Amino acid sequence: MAEAHQAVAFQFTVTPDGIDLQLSREVLKHIYLSGVTSWKKRAIRFKNGVLTGVYPASPSSWLIVVIAIMSTMYARIDPSMGMIDRIKTSLPFMTVQTQTVLSAILFATGLWLSFIFLLRYILKALLSYHGWIFESHGKMSFSTKVWLSLVKLLSGRRPLLYSFQASLPHLPVPSIDDTINRYLESVRPLLDDEQYKQMESVANDFKKDPAPKLQKHLKLKSWWATNYVSDWWEEYIYLRGRDPIMVNSNFYTMDLLYVIPTHRQASRAANVVHAMLQYRRKLERGELTPLRALGIVPMCSFQYERMFNTTRIPDFVQHLKDRKHLVVYHRGRFFKVWLYYGGRHLLPSELELQFQRILDDKSEPQPGEIKLPSLTYFNEGVNRASLEAIETAAFFLTLDDETHGYDPENIRSLDLYAKSLLHGKCYDRWFDKSFTLIVYKNGKIGVNTEHSWADSPIIGHMWEYVLATDCFHLGYTAEGHCKGDINKKLILIGCSYMIAKGIADDVDFHGCLFNEFGKSLIKKCRTSPDAFIQLALQLAHYRDKGEFCLTYESSMTRMFREGRTETVRSCTCESTAFVKAMEDERTTNEQRLALFKKAADKHQNMYRLAMTGAGIDRHLFCLYIVSKVMDIDSPFLKQVLSEPWRLSTSQTPQQQLNLIDIQKFPKYVGAGGGFGPVADDGYGVSYIIVGEDLITFHISSKFSSPETDSFRFGQNIRQAMLDIRALFNPKEKKM
Question: Are residues 349 and 470 in the same domain?
């Protein structure tokens, strides 16, 4: 590691006259300020922990209850029906007056805590209702309005990030019958009659035995555990795997699409790092506002906990507290940069100085240093101290020596930008860190995120905050530097690769900006934008490959405690009927439109089922885990879990925080992010609906597959979108 050393707080020498002790007042001052900051942080965490612990009540409500009970006692009324007197008898060695006051306080406290638990129980019961999701957009029943009013009433006024955790319902275990019926329905369009009959027979055999035994154990786990899926999902899907996580698991997020606030690399890195530190401080104190559907229904926040100070270690996720340094990679060298000075965060201008020194440093990498990050696949033999510094860092920063970003005059610019964020040179990102921040020479930025600790909406939440803070709160000088003065006293602290390179070189990526129309027009067609896009993907895939395939769409389950994701199987009998009609010249547009609406309604209903815990894939996955633990062989589960997802899709959330008014600032829109292909012969498609008139598609596949071509698939998606729009406007012709 390229590293400078900070001065110690004191020096001493042994002389004939004794020990000559020399103290550094400046350093001692910073030690004092650091200690004060640490205690302030603990006090704030304690205060917010109390606020979260008693939510939806408040600490002041305890005082109100105590005063009310004391008042009734002075009025010679006993609201406790004798309980206060019984408490008094267990308080010896006190005066009668002290016993009376203390017993009243204890009773009031018990009454107050009982009231809190009652409120939480009622709120949890209310949040278990999901009928509102299945109602048509813009049409809300009277019962749902009453329900929303009650939820709003019981939700309190100023919830913190984790205030609702104790009130969120647990994810329910679907019934075996429902799961198998929906599974058979999902594979029906992919199988001929004989294949379907065979699958139906295998499924029915499984339903008789061993499904009931497996279901009993799964029910038992759901009663005991907070979430019957999440721990197994993290362990077996992410942590037990030994394949490289680069491309196969990690995903990326892009910068603003059209705007670069400054072209100075060190300045942009400094502002963004400072914004991330501000976000981390709010996160650690629990001061962020929880995400709520309709502005009322809370989403689970447990995934936020491991955003910073986190590293994936084989078989577990290591999360630490109060990490005060950052590891920076530049031109094969590693630098350790302290993030605090005098008990406070470094200011953007101070961080800029540190990063500029790194950029100006002409020293050569030490032997073996340049490709050290490629050893995130095989950590043995790496210098332990250097590795520990990286694994215990707040996060990882790469000051990239390339230039990337969207260039409307270069059709491949978005593709190259995405590939760089997804894998870079294979050795210039630390793929095991919770996330790697990448800052390019031209000031463009992006993030590569490790997947085990959280899903994309979580990093997207932080990213929206960072971009808004960077552009609209911190800002830059006219010359592009960070604002603020610089403290001159700061001191700067300073065979695997080939496998990774083979994976990276095989990624075929295409970024497709679809701006012919967007959410605004789709809503005028009275259909869900997500359903519209998913049906366009089905049509595009059929035109691309001439066949249908099992399709994965990610849906969140964060309305349940510790919920993560569920699968929406987008290829349905209704969607395949629509696609076939689109390719059949004998079918009229009226017939196609009717089939489209039927398929869109089907997709919306499946998405709602997945969000409300009635999906099938996580249930089947957990049944499989139970079968392996019990050493039960199930041909049905083996076949189900071996089926490849040749089309894997996901929508990137937009405007979770609403910090930027994109109507007022249309250029300050994000480009979204993406991921690698799940199947060797398949496509990975991530899309983001940006504002009202732009949809960005991130398409990945593998060059090694003769069946796929990401650019070709992008053109098929574009044409499919236009062809579906033409159904609502008969005057339009195919392009």
Answer: yes
Instruction: Please return the burial class of 320, using the count of CB atoms within 10 Å of its CB with bins 0-12, 13-18 and 19+.
Output: middle
Angle between helix 265-285 and helix 456-469 axes, rounded to 10 deg: 120
Report if residue 171 sits inside a domain: no
CB 19: neighbour CB atoms within 10 A? 8
Would the pTM count as exceeding 0.90? Answer: no
Residues 281 and 180 in one domain: no
Strands 251-254 and 445-449: antiparallel
Shared domain check, 600 and 488 = no
Both 117 and 211 in a single domain? no
Specify if 669 maps to a domain. Answer: yes
DSSP-derived secondary structure letter, 188: G
Residue 465 tokens read as: 């905050």
457 three-state secondary structure: helix
Domain at 692, CATH number: 3.30.559.10
5 found inside a domain: no
Q: Are 581 and 588 in contact (CB under 8 A)?
A: no
**pLDDT for 25:** 59
Query: Distance from CA of residue 340 to its chain's centroid?
Result: 27
**Has 451 been annotated as catalytic?**
yes
* Closest by Cα among 428, 151, 158, 465 to 307: 465
Of 170, 451, 510, 619, the catalytic one is 451
| φ, ψ for residue 326, nearest 5 deg | -130, 140
Confirm if 440 and 404 have CB atoms less than 8 A apart: yes
Domain residues for the domain of 354 are 251-505
In a domain, 716, yes or no: yes
Share the mean pLDDT of the chain: 88
Q: What is the pLDDT of residue 3?
A: 35
Does residue 285 register a pLDDT over 70? yes
Q: What is the pLDDT of residues 190-240, one digit of tens each?
A: 999 999 999 999 999 999 999 999 999 999 999 999 999 999 999 999 998
- pLDDT at site 376: 54
| C-beta of residue 632 within 8 angstroms of C-beta of residue 210 | yes
Number of domains in the chain: 3
pLDDT value of residue 352: 96
Give the closest residue to 446 by CA, choosing from 434, 435, 457: 435
- pLDDT, tens digit (0-9, with 9 covering 90-100), for 9-63: 444 444 445 545 455 555 566 566 666 766 777 787 788 888 888 888 888 889 9
Is there a single domain that holds both residue 695 and residue 560?
yes
Same domain, 231 and 258: no
Whether residues 484 and 392 share a domain: the answer is yes
Q: Which amino acid is residue 558, in one-letter code?
A: R
Instruction: Give Cβ neighbours of residue 693 (< 8 Å, ≥ 6 apart).
Output: 515, 517, 518, 519, 520, 521
Centroid of chain to Cα 328: 23
Q: Cβ neighbours of residue 547 under 8 Å, at least 6 residues apart? A: none
Alpha carbon distances (Å) from 359 to 276, 442, 493: 21, 13, 14
Residues 335 and 262 in one domain: yes
Mean pLDDT is lowest, of 117-126, 409-418, 649-658, for 649-658
Q: How far apart are CA 676 and CA 685, in angstroms?
A: 9
pLDDT attached to residue 373: 67
Residue in this structure with the two tokens 């332990």, named with its chain if needed: 384
**Is the pLDDT at 279 greater than 90, yes or no?**
yes
Given 505, 523, 539, which residue is the final one in a domain?
A: 505
Identify the domain boundary among 100, 131, 158.
Answer: 158
C-alpha span between 255 and 253 (Å, rounded): 7
